[in-house]
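Notes from the 1:1 (GR / supervisor)

We went over the backlog. Supervisor wanted to see one worked example end to end before approving the batch request, so GR pasted a single chain during the call. The sequence is below; no edits were made to it. Supervisor asked that the structure be written out right there so they could see what the output format looks like.
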Amino acid sequence: MKVDIYSDVVCPWCYIGERRFARALAAFPDGEQVEVGFRPYQLDPDAPATPRPLIESLGRKFGSRVPEMLTRVSDAARGEGIEMRWDDALAVNTLSAHRVLRLAEREQGPAVQRALAERLFDAHFSRGADISDAATLGELAAAAGMDADRVCAHLATDDGLRDVVAEIEQAQRLGIRAVPTFVFDGKYLVEGGQPAPVFLQVLEEVARLGRAEGGVAAEREGDDACVDGACRT
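Structure output shown during the call:
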């Protein structure tokens, strides 16, 4: 089975959803045979190169809804063992991070890519790191099993840039407008950071269906805010 996770590393529900999906995968009898890959998506492709406080950025976008949004997300994150440090987090452009995630999968494989994704989420939401900075990305990549010098050299060129942009455009053509979005075997779509039992049910159902015709497994409706399990563009 192949699972593609469309996500952005500055999306809190992507972090929460990744943790929940990991728990479901650990409980799935054939979990070791499931190939998981992260696919790029940008909630704010126009985010500037210079980081700014995330709280400030959210305030401009969502106004008075921000405190309630952050409380709900923090409560959900806490249930997955995640500490959200909103006052330290930075709003950054995520294109470079996606380039490194693509490099990780291409040169090291899906397991290293998943390890890097976890470190990127933690660095952004829990440690206030600038995950658009090449040196920081190199350090995080090294902790996941990559070569820091290779990562920095990669980011110093345009290698892989067009491919990442093309993948983001392809996601938009597929109709993906919110993250995280989980696509099972290229057919079955689950939107949002669903509870682990829901992901486990989907894994079991997709395994049972095998080569069945494609369809939508589950979706969530919502507005443009990061609430109810997904962040929308």
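Supervisor's comment: Confidence is low (pLDDT under 50) at residues 214-223.
Batch request approved.
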